[in-house]
Amino acid sequence: REAVSLLREALGKDPASQPLLGALLTLALRFEGVDAAKAILEESPAESRKTVAVMTLEASVAARDTAENGAAALAALETRVAELPTVEQPAVINAIASAYGAIGRPDDAVRAYRSLLERTPDNLTTWDALFRLAEQRGNIELAEEASRSIARLAGDNSAEAKVAEAATLMLKTRLAAAARAETGVEAALDASASDALQKTRALLIEAETTRKNWAEVQLRFADVALAERDLETAISRLKQAARLAPGNTLITRRMVSLLHAADRIEEAVEAMALLRPEDMQGLERITADIQFRGGNFDKAVAIAETAVSDTSDNVADLTWLGQLLTRSGDTARAISL
Asked: Which residues of 156-192 are buried (b: 16+ CB within 10 A; e: fewer)?
């Protein structure tokens, strides 16, 4: 935090310095939060913000903001991309697309990635990002399109192509299971789902042989294990992924969720300790439950209250908060919800 103060002082003496602005934004966002970073941007001269580095950081700030504010900031940033030389624009567009995804605007993210592909149609990283968005949205058509492009660019027999094909099979299996569940049909694997999982596993074995020590393969093996309701194997695969990609936030968050689901609370706490405060968003229920089990009732309720407002209209969230309040002895407050 002392570094932030020093950079503020230095930027005050040289407000047009783009390197100083970039360094201050990076540290302020990490140590002081979104509002501090936004204030710095608002006070900065427009000319100092016309660089790839600063615009990319602006997208990072928007990604940490509320969905409404973040979307407005990203839309404004999109109009400024044209100010950059053509060769520098893709880096900023990529950051914008990623930020749209982070604030829950997948359609805008897809649009931005499509715009990027118009400039660089053979960018494997962009197609991979589109594939992941397709998974999140349950969009089989987009997943298949991205999978074909990944195979074209990386090679049909590449680990990347095999993983994309396997993940597409998993997506179809997951959506089919969800459709069966909606009709009240038992969610247990049917013959077609079991066959798809066998094919998925075979593809992943090929990928693992082709590209050893790739954490992504272990993550996909974990997905297969979860589809088969084999929680222990899924955790084992995630641990392998964590060893191969230490510090990966996605892997750690999934580890926390699965360890909690398996009632391996001490291990879940250890994994949670590896996450930064900003990485904890979405894990409030798990965090509150762990605190409650440890006898920290007030802390558990405080965590729940930051995640759920009294005025929320989400029945599931309010029910959870009410149950927690009841268990902690605050029955009157629970009833008032």
From this structure: eebbbbbbbbbbbbbbbbbeebeeeeeeeeeeebeee
pLDDT confidence band for 305 (50 / 70 / 90)? confident
Of the chain, the percentage scoring pLDDT greater than 90 comes to 60
Count the neighbouring beta carbons within 10 Å of the beta carbon of residue 25.
Answer: 26
Q: Where residue 198 falls among pLDDT bands split at 50, 70, 90?
A: very high
8 A C-beta contact, residue 59 and residue 72: no
Q: What is the 3-state secondary structure (H, E, C) of the chain?
A: CHHHHHHHHHHHHCCCCHHHHHHHHHHHHHHCCHHHHHHHHHHCCHHHHCCHHHHHHHHHHHHHCCHHHHHHHHHHHHHHHHHCCHHHHHHHHHHHHHHHHHCCCHHHHHHHHHHHHHHCCCCHHHHHHHHHHHHHHCCHHHHHHHHHHHHHHHCCCCHHHHHHHHHHHHHHHHHHHHHHHHCCCCCCCCHHHHHHHHHHHHHHHHHHHHCCCCHHHHHHHHHHHHHCCCHHHHHHHHHHHHHHCCCCHHHHHHHHHHHHHCCCHHHHHHHHCCCCHHHHCCCHHHHHHHHHHCCCHHHHHHHHHHHCCCCCCCHHHHHHHHHHHHHCCCHHHHHHC
CA gap 300, 110 in Å, rounded: 37
Output the CA angle 299-278-101, nearest 5 degrees. Answer: 130
Sorted by sequence, the CB contacts under 8 Å of residue 206 that are 6+ apart come out as 157, 159, 162
Which amino acid is residue 228, in one-letter code?
E
Span 167-196, pLDDT tens digits: 999 999 999 888 887 777 655 567 788 899
101 against 331, higher pLDDT: 101
CB 188 within 8 A of CB 203: no
